[in-house]
């Protein structure tokens, strides 16, 4: 086989995984937010749970129940492939609410998936009463919510992708909102300004501008956090003696660079390399 043909086959094989990654909303969200190994355990447990609660109830053997559960969940995944909307389910904010957001999506998409998947389950055994099949499918998806939370929240910090996303939005807002923290601190008549006494005062000012005080911290989301606990602050320097030689107001040391507000109110960023 020619290398070009091999590359084409590998490309198509990788492309075919996209619908599975999109999954049925909840699984796609979990794949994007949580660690892959934890996600894989969650998917396997969900498939087995549905096979037990629905497949065995319908009188199928364990093997047939598992195969049906795999096939039905794969069908749901491929039906969602056209939209691949899981990426748009994330709260694009500087401080998300990971536990509530995850629980809400698991419940909502569990209900939607139950409605969709009850149809092929019903077709697998037409002698079973329609509403009983739907109730069993609904039970499997609702029971899957606490099971999913138990599995997905095993790591101490289970939301690595959400932390990375929050950090990105914080960097964006810092570059914009730092321009405005000194708006009411300049005395135009004397050409002087009132510097913040400490970082907490700066944080309070950013919170007044829209809750952006959290941007002074690297994001940390533990298992049951509703908001960022603000326990990993970024190094911040406040220049109390601005001069021509030291013409900056404040500096924030980010992992890969230095963000600075000049005495003219401009925001500048300098790449410093990734910290080890």
Determine the mean pLDDT: 82
Strand order of the largest sheet: 3-4-5-6
Strand content: 5-15%
What best-fitting shape do the alpha-carbon axes yield?
elongated
Task: Itemize the secondary structure elements and their pairings.
Elements: H1 3-22, H2 26-33, H3 36-55, H4 62-79, H5 98-124, H6 130-152, H7 160-177, E1 186-187, E2 192-193, H8 199-208, E3 236-238, E4 248-254, E5 257-262, E6 267-271
Antiparallel strand pairs: 1-2, 3-4, 4-5, 5-6
Helix pairs in contact: 1-4, 2-3, 3-4, 3-6, 4-5, 5-6
Textual characterization of the structure:
By secondary structure, the chain is an alpha+beta fold. Helix content is 52%, strand content 9%. A four-stranded antiparallel sheet has the order 3-4-5-6, with no helix packed on it. The chain has a two-stranded antiparallel ribbon with strand order 1-2. Strand 1 and strand 2 (192-193) form a beta hairpin. Residues 17-24 and 81-88 have low confidence and may be disordered.
List keywords for this structure.
276 residues; two-stranded antiparallel sheet; elongated
Give a short overview.
With 276 residues, this protein is of the alpha+beta class. The chain is 52% helix and 9% strand.
